[in-house]
Amino acid sequence: MTQQITVQIAETKRDKPDQSNLGFGRIFTDHMFMMNFTEGKGWHDARIVPYQPLTLDPSAMVFHYGQTVFEGMKAYLTEDGQIFLFRPEKNMERLNRSNDRLCIPQIDGDFVIEGLKKLIAVDREWIPTAEGTSLYIRPFIIATEPFLGVAPAKNYIFMIIMSPVGSYYKEGISPVKILVESEFVRAVKGGTGEAKTGGNYASSLKAQELATGKEYSQVLWLDGVEKKYIEEVGSMNVFFKINGEVVTPALNGSILHGVTRDSVIQLLKHWNIPVSERRISIDEIAQAHREGKLEEAFGTGTAAVISPIGEFFWGSEQLVLNGGKTGELSKRIYDTITGIQKGKLEDPFGWVTKVPVSESK
Ligand code: COI
């Protein structure tokens, strides 16, 4: 795909938000990236334009049948003024896997990363610098063809919007409490669980709402068939440290291929800490807890980063981990991953992509 990306700069630049109170995903930068797909023409009209509402036909297919995919990425400003992206090519790979599952045309990942770099350069003043903050990046695709039949659309819009963010959870980086969900299910093998698509999140809302009402941050999903094996937490993959070994559910067709998940596995291997991806039942976790062998648990995700888990509630059993405090390993992983992301630590894995300084002026 060889396309020019046109840039239209916003006439007025808005004030930057107070970095001590960013929250997550409510504030957006001055510009956004867009391109269109038309059957027979492919992706075209790549452009950076002022952030603005969209005009869509009420019959646009995304509104009716949810043909849409998205990604989550982050950009960081280092202490010496460089801008880093973390493994953006992995997000593009996953976006194309999601596209395939949702019958959305493939995108050219390299081209999109170039567009993203330009967008970040234009809005670089929006990258927050306070501890625990970053610029969250949301690429997404929606089906825009006006049609009420159930079929893959012939027209799409691809967009990237960006939001300066703090912690995803109100707890910040303090441990979260998780409710093990035993009524509702998130996904089954053969469904769309592996894809990053809106429907997976829409179907999670009911369980999430009930969990929030009981003061739990998120739910832990079990498999959709036996409701026995652990899959993932609402917006993150999950890891457990049992008797010195770290385990995480194997990618089984219904679990999201987390980029942070993959990075944590690589990091643990690099440190020679035993780590395995396998099937883990909730009974095994509860038993390990009863025997005093469940040492730590944490979630991983772009938005959630590394989020320590202080408690699970399952049926009538309360599983408190590490006295409800952040575990040593969770902290070490958090410090290392965020250290690499923010350029404070060396990157032996080649995870960081720099946004060229000449573009970022
Ligand atoms: C991310 O971690 O980037 C996600 O997309 C999770 C989202 C549901 C907040």
Tell me about this structure.
With 361 residues, this protein is an alpha+beta fold. The protein has two domains: 6-166 and 350-360, Aminotransferase class 4, branched-chain amino acid transferase, N-terminal domain (D-amino Acid Aminotransferase, Chain A, domain 1); 176-326, D-amino Acid Aminotransferase, subunit A, domain 2 (D-amino Acid Aminotransferase, Chain A, domain 2). It is built from eight helices and 18 strands. It has helices at 61-65, 88-101, 109-122, 198-202, 205-213, 259-270, 282-290, 328-341, and strands spanning 6-7, 31-38, 42-50, 68-70, 73-77, 83-86, 134-143, 155-165, 176-180, 218-222, 230-233, 237-242, 245-249, 275-278, 294-301, 305-314, 317-320, 352-355. The strands form two sheets. Strands 1, 2, 3, 4, 5, 6, 7, 8 and 18 form a nine-stranded mixed sheet that branches. Strands 9, 10, 11, 12, 13, 14, 15, 16 and 17 form a nine-stranded mixed sheet that branches. The mean pLDDT is 95. The site of 2-OXO-4-methylpentanoic acid (COI) has 7 residues, from loops. 2-OXO-4-methylpentanoic acid binds next to loops.
List of distinct ligands in this structure: 2-OXO-4-methylpentanoic acid
Shape: globular
Find the structural class using helix and strand composition: alpha+beta
Write the CATH fold name of the largest domain.
Answer: D-amino Acid Aminotransferase, Chain A, domain 1
Strand content: 25-35%
Number of helices: 8
Full CATH superfamily name of the largest domain? Aminotransferase class 4, branched-chain amino acid transferase, N-terminal domain
